[in-house]
Amino acid sequence: MRRRTGPLGGGTPGGGTGSFGKRRTGPLDAGTPGRSAGSFRKRRTGLPASCTPVRGTGSFRNRTGLLGAAVLAGALALSGCDRGGDTDLGLALSTLNNPFFVAVREGAQAEADRRGLHINITDAQNDPMQQINQMETFTSQDVKAAIINPVDSDAAVPAVGVANRADVPVISLDRGVNGGRVGTAIASDNVAGGRLAAKTLAESLGGKGKVAFLEGQPGTSAARERGQGFEEGIKAYPGIEVVARQPADFDRAKGMDVMSNMLQVHRDIGGVFAANDEMALGAAKSLGARAGKDVKIVAFDGTPEGVAAVRGKTLTATVAQQPRLLGRQAVTQALKAARGERLPQQVKVPVVLVTGKNAAEFDG
Q: Tell me, which fold does domain 1-182+323-348 have in CATH?
């Protein structure tokens, strides 16, 4: 057999259509947040001959026959032994019709490539049922760990259950899951970002005025947490009145429509907080020449278009996430989960405020 070089035996990065000829060895657990992977049943009891772990996963030399100790089997299962170009990790993204998640994909793919891993990245097109099907595909490919960026935090529970029943560790990315066994949740610090957005918007208005809030997709932890942070932060400015709030589902076209409807009732709005750049850009289009001048707009994400709009003074600021870092962290934590390492309950990635003063430093 040919020998792989990656820590999970990565084949050609970016694929994910093959299926394993042999099942993984050693216990792999979806895990309980904050705990190491548990002791699920072993998938097989022996390994092919002449299988040598890569550096850092063990110190075994070539062997023949069966290895009785589960710990040796588990080490070799993640060592780089050939398994015919199989998929190591699965990443189920909620959508790729959003530049933020395109950047997440790029970060995850880059980290997988760096580690020599074979990752299958899918697009659910904002359909929770597709994420269930994608998890079933991942388990049929015998992935060592699965990453899910939920379309909806509640609707993702059955998808996580698919992986749980197959003893595949699960990591959540950007949005949490309201059930099932998830090893760790990786996300930006959305609550802190919401507070920062409130402070920035209020100060841009001199501490007084009427503002509107374009909320994200209901049912997602990101929308809930950004809203929580914004509400907490705006309380510090009694001169600011939130006169309108409505979900626009993180969508640019909906952001434009919602903003237009709000302006029909509240022509004197002086500020807008949009829970992502796409909605903010939609709101700016609705506002036309007023955007960034008569009406201050603070957004969230730090996508290339969002940062460009800050440079162009259409947006006052955007709270920038680090999507490529989120993608890289997801792959790193998934690898740890596959190895049975102890995981933190949460991994919070810090946010950064982008304004006209520092926008030139950001590429989005």
A: Rossmann fold (3.40.50)
Angle, CA 303 vertex, CA 206 and CA 218 arms, to 5° = 80
Helix locations, 213-322, DSSP H: 221-234, 252-265, 277-287, 304-311
Q: Give the domain ranges of the chain.
A: 1-182+323-348, 190-321
- As a residue count, the chain comes to 364
pTM: 0.69
Kindly give, in sequence order, each residue whose CB lies less than 8 Å from that of residue 92, ignoring residues fewer than 6 positions away. 122, 124, 131, 134, 135, 138, 146, 147, 148, 149, 159
Superfamily classification of domain 190-321: Response regulator (3.40.50.2300)
pLDDT tens digits, residue range 115-132? 999 999 999 999 999 999
Our measurement of the distance from residue 239's CA atom to the centroid of its chain's CA atoms, rounded to an integer in Å, reads 36
**What one-character-per-residue DSSP string does 47-94 give?**
--SS--PPTTS-------S----HHHHHHHHTTT---SS---EEEEES
Q: What pLDDT, on a 0 to 100 scale, did the predictor assign at position 206?
A: 97
